[in-house]
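Changelog note: in this version the structure field was regenerated for every chain. One regenerated record is shown below for reference.
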Amino acid sequence: MISDALKLSFDGDAVLSGVVDYTGSATLEGAITVTNQGTYDLVANTNITGSAGSSFANNATFEKTDGVGVSLVTSNFTNSGVLNVLSGSVQFTGGFTNHGLIRGRVTQSGGVTTVTALPPSDFNEDGMSDVQWQNTTGGQASVWDMNGNTLKGGGPVSPNPGSSWKAIGTGDFNGDGLSDILWQNASTGQASIWEMNGNSLIGGGPVTPNPGSS
């Protein structure tokens, strides 16, 4: 494990197979490759600065879990594992290639790829939280796409789950960057996940095993 407020300097090819969890920056000196086969976690708005020809290859988990600002990666970056941005954003300015899974909102402009943490309950992937409602009488669910406190879209969810099913949470259960709905049957305790694209049901189903009514 590499942790705490350290600064890392790589002067040759390196393989990381443990946990890098720290608040310092890293520098790749020269045309070298650093390969991550463990967990590389940015816990602050810190950077990875690469010289010309340098590369960072993520074959496992590369993530940013703290710091609401921007972290810069100026070396060439190849993701063949999981790139997970839970806080702030990561900008890749030295080249970006993806062969793996990205959790976050991806934008590209002028050769720069930016991955930004998704807000909670973002049903339409516009970077803003939305509201999920359920009618207490008939059980009808609805999604409001929001811009601050202004309603800008959305609508009823089809089909109507009925009054015996209660919406108990949201989350991105299938890793597509869009919020989904977690339901539970008030009588039997059966849980179910609806994978959503906005207010449209696109997949999911019952969760097994049934946790029970208690």
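Spot check on this record: The mean pLDDT is 94. DSSP finds no helices and 25 strands in the chain.
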